[in-house]
Amino acid sequence: MAQTKPVEITSEPGHHLALSNAYTRVFQVQVPPHAATQMHLHRHSYLFVNLGQAQIENDVQGKPPVKMKLVDGQTKLAQGPFAHIIKNVGDTPFRNVTIEILRPASAEAENEPRQRGLSVDSGLMIDTLYDTAQVRVSEFQLNPGVHVDIHQDKWPHLLVAVSDLKLRDQRPNGRGGDLTLKTGGISWSQGGHAHTFTNLGLERARWIDVEFK
After folding, report:
1. Which end is more exposed in the chain, N or C (fewer Cβ atoms within 10 Å of the end residue's Cβ)?
2. In total, how many domains does the chain have?
3. 91 plus 148 within the same structural domain
4. Do 78 and 112 belong together in one domain?
5. In which order are the strands placed within the sheet that holds 66-70?
6. Measured between alpha carbons, how far is 183 from 84 in angstroms, rounded to an integer?
7. Alpha-carbon distance 159 to 169, whole Å?
């Protein structure tokens, strides 16, 4: 791979900025079949949530290319900084949500107990995928019609819809409302409150939740 100068991620045509705040920048990414991104720079560590199935080649600058088969909802943590080109070698679009981790770990978060593993209860599944000093990343699956109490949200967090979502989000103070998102949609919350979820849809609701410590 030619050692060309990488562009900033904000200048890469396949990366579309969807959210920016003190904790994260979130990009909606799409690469058509048999196309490639420009070489672009990831200055920060980040997560990506894959949408649909894809076959890609990851060409990291200075390293051999790596081919990957990705499945729907697959979530990966990548340590920056580095520059790369993504080549879509499959016949379907490569879509993901890329979530940069901007804030360094706090002393409080360093001492926070880490969660691991899978929890299943009354139509709700929570799978803790990553729990680092900066983020906790969990996959949620909620069966149609199921109402569940969610623990107190301690930290700000980002919800990424892996399926179409129609959720009723209720809080003890009466606030909240219905959250309707298409696959790949995002929703940001500052946290600091308890709430309940009800799946108003006819299919299992699936989403990734990224908590920023």
Report:
1. N
2. 2
3. no
4. no
5. 7-8, 40-42, 82-88, 54-60, 66-70
6. 26
7. 12
Residue type (1 letter), 142:
L
152 and 190: one domain? Answer: yes
State which H helix or E strand residue 109 sits in.
helix 107-110
- Three-state DSSP at 98 gives strand
What lies within 8 Å, CB to CB, of 5 at 6+ separation is 39
Q: Parallel, antiparallel, or unpaired: how do β-strands 40-42 and 7-8 relate? A: parallel
Q: Do both 146 and 163 map to the same domain?
A: yes
Backbone angles phi, psi at 107, to 5 degrees: -60, -40
Instruction: Decide if 2 is inside a domain.
Output: no
> Looking at the domain assignment, is residue 1 inside a domain?
no
Residue with tokens 């959720």: 167
Each of the 213 residues of the chain gets a pLDDT tens digit; together they read: 444 799 999 999 999 999 999 999 999 999 999 999 999 999 999 999 999 999 999 999 999 999 999 999 999 999 999 999 999 999 999 999 999 999 987 766 666 667 677 777 789 999 999 999 999 999 999 999 999 887 668 899 999 999 999 999 888 776 778 999 999 999 999 988 888 889 999 999 999 999 999
pTM (predicted TM-score):
0.91
Q: What was the pLDDT predicted at 203?
A: 96
Comparing C-alpha atoms, which of 203, 107, 192, 93 is closest to residue 152? 192
The pLDDT of residue 112: 67
CATH number at residue 189: 2.60.120.10
Q: Which domain holds residue 61?
A: 7-100
Q: What is the DSSP letter of 108?
A: H
